[in-house]
Each structure stands twice: as structure tokens, then as C-alpha cells.
């Protein structure tokens, strides 16, 4: 049954994302349209698109939404006509994060690949895609605005989304330039001159975009460091100091940066999981800490709810449903952190970090300081798990605040304080575990100097 309506045939398309790449599927002869073309998970929207897209994911990949796949966002429908089919299409796009890449193909597809989304617009890529696939992706792709507004995910997650924003724009600029060059006329010298001018314009646009990303979440050092590294490596790829790097260099450096970032977070988690046994307490949502808990051997996990967004509730539910976690999971209010530390024989507090300052103090979700101070009072060791990119090159601390209504939305004349982050003193932290292992104070300062060198691209 087709979802034909007066405004067109409604279909859903889901982009599954894992480690910065999306899943493309090649449509088989078993489907009625666009056989042999590549696209996302798709199907006719015969009812509610939100329900249908989840059904299509289960049927076409074997993954289960809500368990191994989580919705990131849906986008505004893409409407277009295909004269060859004499049909008007209305595509409802969705973006989901997938926990892993193992896919069970249905008969509707005969091949799959995990790729950078930019291959969709790459004129040199030999995959023929379904119509308007890039437009559908852009409707759900990360943006500066979505990164600035995200209050559910940790700094490492958002840093990778920032690299995706740069990558996607660079990939589109590369495709547009190659199309212009392919259609241009004139001698080779003219094309060379045009390409040089294009490179300068591309760099200016991407540098401006990078600057906006750097200020999107000012408290997150990892976002700044990873964006700075991508831009710095693009500069280093130029043949000489006078050359301006173009979009191709930024495209390559961001793809490499995403691979490096995901590996660093995984390696930091692997370095920490050897320390995790017995009863563990944590707070807020850190993907790196979650990986460490899965790889460790905890006998019980306490999770603070992390007000006001209460992302700790989601973390506790995720841990409780995870087959890799074979122990009780207990959730509690942030205010009960000191009680838990004093009464529940906690063996270790393990938390992530949005930022590690040059002196070893830690910026993280509000409530971390209270939990760590309580742990220090009880003699409980505190482990911070974070990639080295989370070390800050700045002396000052910029602490974000949440909305007033998240704390109080009544009519009384009250001032409201809703800090999103707090600072935990360095002398309350026993170790900072990174992809390089545990860092001592002097080692922290060495890494900070390395990261400061990446900021010089802005002086061009």
C-alpha cells in the first residue's frame, strides 16, 4: 500500500550514524523504484511517519530503535517531483545514532557501506543515489545551532558533531568547485587561476564557520581543540606558507579528525576500565565513562540523576538494559550523592569531564563538585576519564547556565541560579585517565602547550 495523498507520495528516510559515518544501502531488484541506487533506510509512510521509520529500521537492518538505535532528530519534509516516474514525492528525513555497525540486510537491499555523508555529493564517487538524498541529509545533519542548543550530550559527542559540520560544508564546497571546473571553458591557466580564487573563498567561509563552532559551547575545550586541530592540519597541508588551503584540505582533515577523536575516546575508556571494579558512583552523561563501565567489572553502579535535564536517568536506564553490565544499577537525586558516598561502601567515583584546566581542576556538569567533595571526605578515590583533547588552553573558565524555567517557573519575584557546569578542585581528583594513560600535573602542562600550538591557524 502506497502512502499517496493529494500532495504526493509520502516516504520516510532514516540516516543511521555511527562514529561519524552514515549507512548507505543499495536498493535491490525486490523494490519497486530506484533499483540499484543507494540511499538510507526508507519505505512508504503508510501511517504515522515517526512510527513507520522505526518499523523500517527494524525490517531493513535488524536493529531495534530504542535499544541499539536512538533518534537524534527529524527534519522538515523534502518535496520534489520525478518526471520519469510521473510522481510527486514527500520525503520525511530522520537521523538516528546506532550503537554498532552489524546489519542484517533484508531482501530490499543487496549491499551496504558506512561512509562519510559527503560521498553523496562527491562527483568522483561511482554510487548513484536516490534523488534528493543530500537535501534530506542536510535537513537532519548537525548545525552550529543544534550543537549550541544540545543539553543532553557530553562534550566529546558534541566535538565530533562540530567536526561533522565542518566536514559536510567542506565536502559540499569541493563538489561545487569540481562541478564548476568540469563545466568551465578556457585554457588550463585560466582554470588554475579560478581554482586559486575559489580556494581563498572556500577558506574564508570555512574559517568563519570554524569560528562560530568555537564559540558555540565556550566551556568545552575538546570542541575547540578538535576544531583547531582540523583547521591547523589543513593549513599544514598547504604546499607553502603563501598558499591558502581550500575545502579539499579541510575535508580531509575533518574526516581524519573524526576518526582520531572516536579512537581517542575509546582508548581513554579502555585505559580506565581496568580500574573499574566493585561499587562505582557516577554523574551526568559521558560516552567515554559509559564505555569504561561496559569494559570494567563493576558490582554495583550508582547514578546521580543530573538535574535539571536529568540525563542521569537515561544513563541509568541504558546501563540497566545493557547486556555488558551484569550488576544492579541504582539512580538517586544529586542531593543524595553525599549520603550514597557515606552509606553505600562506594569503591570509586568515575566521571567524565567537559574540560580539564591547566592546573588539573575539572569542569563538568553541575553536581560533579559536590559528588567529588563527598568522595574525598570519605576517602573514596576519584577517577576522571577524558581524552587529552579535553585539556583547556585558556586560563579563564566560562561556565554556561541553563534556563530559569528549568528550576523555577512560578510567579514569585525570585532570582534563579541554574549553572550548567561547576569546577572540581584538582586536589580532590586522584587521577585523570586519557588515551595516553594517567596524566601527572607536569604532563598536563605539556599537553596544554601542544594544544596551544593548534590555535595558530587563526593568525593566517
Automatic annotation (TrEMBL):
Residue ranges of domain Nudix hydrolase in the record: 7-137
Single GO term (MF): S-methyl-5-thioribose-1-phosphate isomerase activity
Region (Disordered) residue spans: 176-202
InterPro entries linked to this entry: IF-2B-related (IPR000649), IF_2B-like_C (IPR042529), NagB/RpiA_transferase-like (IPR037171), NUDIX_hydrolase-like_dom_sf (IPR015797), NUDIX_hydrolase_dom (IPR000086)
Pfam name, any one: IF-2B
Sorted UniProt keywords: Initiation factor, Protein biosynthesis
Family in the record: Belongs to the eIF-2B alpha/beta/delta subunits family.
Protein name per the record: Translation initiation factor 2B subunit, eIF-2B alpha/beta/delta family
Organism expressing this protein natively: Natronorubrum texcoconense
Lineage: Archaea, Methanobacteriati, Methanobacteriota, Stenosarchaea group, Halobacteria
